[in-house]
Amino acid sequence: MATNYSNREESQTSFSSELKLIPRWSVAAAILAFVVMEYLFWVVFPHERHHPGPPFGLRLYFALSWGALASLYMLMVGYISNDSPRRGMSVRIWMIICLVMPGGIGAVLYFLLRQPIISLCPACGTHVQSEYHFCPQCAYQVSASCGNCYRSVRITDLYCVNCGHDLASDNRPARLHAFR
Ligand SMILES: [Zn+2]
Ligand SMILES: [Zn+2]
């Protein structure tokens, strides 16, 4: 149970664990997208144009920035494909939206509309959202909260960061004291 809590906390806070959500295929797609962009800029476009193009520095700037944008987009799509299921959002629908909407609007929409992370109640397996303190089906306490103001607190805190309440006086379940 104790490791459950630490995993939950880390997955919500740590940037490096968010990066682990990016699947290998999307890293490969990102590299491919960068290569394709460079190919377009340095091989395809110069041949289609007969008059001399913009100066080299400008061409390099556009080639690199469009390449970076394309690969960033691939990483974003990969991230969304793994992030949406843990929020109870349809992967298929969001993949279609991301691929259909031009210029990354799909990805922007996703981050505006995304739902809180859903995890499973350790006691009964019900889906609980990350802001829940108790399981709605079995009343298992899934995260620590202040007994005075009822805001979320970290299980390692001795006092509520919001109201200064002494958390030791709350008689919280023993499983929440695991990291003391
Ligand atoms: Zn439950
Ligand atoms: Zn409080």
TrEMBL record:
Domain of life from the UniProt record: Bacteria
Pfam family, one: DZR
UniProt keyword annotations, A-Z: Membrane, Transmembrane, Transmembrane helix
Transmembrane residue ranges: 21-45, 60-81, 93-113
InterPro entries with a match to the protein in the record: DZR
Domain DZANK-type: 121-164
Keyword Membrane in record: yes
UniProt-recorded name of the protein: Zinc ribbon domain-containing protein
Species per Swiss-Prot/TrEMBL record: Alloacidobacterium dinghuense
